[in-house]
Structure formats: C-alpha cells, structure tokens
Amino acid sequence: MIKIIWSKDELSTLEEQLHNNHVNYVLINHLDNLPDHVVGIEIDDEKVDDLKKVIEMIEYEKMQMFFPTLDGFVQLYISNIYYIEAFGEDIVCHMRNLEQQHIKKLLYQLEMILEPYHFVRISKSFIVNLRQIKYIKVGLNAKLHLTLNNQSQLEVTRSFVKKFKKQLDL
C-alpha cells in the first residue's frame, strides 16, 4: 500500500482525479500524529503508474506563474488559462470565469515558456491550452476547429496543423 497525506480542503480535486483514472483507494480520516485538516489516502501498490499520472495532474492544477503586465506582474494558475490571443502587440490571456488578463510579453516568448505545460501555438495569433480542448473537428482546407471546455471556438490554421497533431500524438 502507498499512503498519501492530503489536505481535506483539496480532497475533492484529488478524489476526482483518482476516480477519472480508475484508481482504487481508501480514505482514512484519523491517522496518528496528524492534524485534523488532513486526510490519509491508501492506494494499492499495483496502481503506481496511475498514481504518477494523478500526481502530475494535481501539480498542473497547482502550478502558478508570474506574467508581466503594463503595471507590474500578475500570478496566474496555468490550469485556469484556456487560450492566449494576440492583437498586434496586445496579448490577452483568456481564463476561467470569463476573466481576461493583459500580458506584456511577445506571443512567441509565451509559446516557449508555456510549451512544457501542454500549450501549443495554433495560428499566428493564438496559443491554446491542450488540456482545455473538448472537441476537435476537421474543417475545410486542412484546418481544424477546436471547441474548448468554456465553449470558445478556435481554428488551427494549416501551417500549424502538423505541429498541433504531433503535440497530441494524432
């Protein structure tokens, strides 16, 4: 058995990840020498690979990064970003809860910074969070149409389709 100690406040997120990855686990509410605000989780040794995936997803959910703005820096959760859009030199980060944040950085620089976190460039003006894609539809002229989890519609232009497919192993 593998034992994990986790915050009760964040337990629902972890339970969702364990459930989605079909990991069998047991919750232990009272462990010796542990404060009341934590819970123990026991997972079968045979599910170590699944557990690694879950831990990676949780790390992603908690990952924060500072981005430069016009008047300073803002700290954003990477998982809250749906896509980043460029309007000339104006860069807008579209996030959960219809929130938008203006970023003072060039799009190609953001592309390089965010690539390890499953972001990919889909056109001259857009970078998308691959984990926020709900549906991909093949369009005319070898373009792809994306529907994101927030119902936003984006298009992968022809010159970016090959790289996009490679990122998704399609």
UniProtKB/TrEMBL annotation:
It holds the Pfam family LytTR. GO terms for molecular function: DNA binding; phosphorelay response regulator activity. It comes from the Bacteria. This is Uncharacterized protein. It comes from Mariniplasma anaerobium.
